[in-house]
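Batch manifest, entry 17 of 40.
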Amino acid sequence: MSENNVKRGTLFVYSGCSGVGKGTIMKELMEADSSIKLSVSATTREPREGEENGVHYFFVSKDEFEKMIEEDGFLEHEEYCDNFYGTPKRPVEEMLSQGFNVFLEIEVKGAVSIINRYPEAVSIFILPPSLDELERRLRSRGTEEEETIRKRLETAIDELKIAAFYKYQVVNNDLQKAVEEILHIVKTNTA
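Output type: structure tokens
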């Protein structure tokens, strides 16, 4: 217990292939359970339409990102599809100490790093119903060039092999069922 007698929150590692619906599920989870907070990652990629700095990501330059690495400011960081992504330490620790259940929505390499460094973390991998459906979802976003879509699909095949190392795997075929399953996982691991 902290000095305020608040039970420390639980750290959740939350991953899945690009385009599998992680963001949509997370929005529903946070609306359904006020104890769930999403860690905001830092990235060097350009914002997509509608994304806000500090809400969806901290959009930083490569130089800023490298400075944060030097200052040991990340729980983890990785390069993915020619951009850098990382989980800033301080905000995660603050939320956990306030009793929130913190979800790290991170790519697979970073997730494996967190799982190894923080074995108490609860890991959840979101699976697509099929690779064909994943490709359809990626294309329907309309935010990336063909080469990027192909690269994301190739990466997804490799990531799906690692899904078995996560404590839980949830198929996002039906949004409400996926949300209910994850809410059950949260309740089971924080009771």
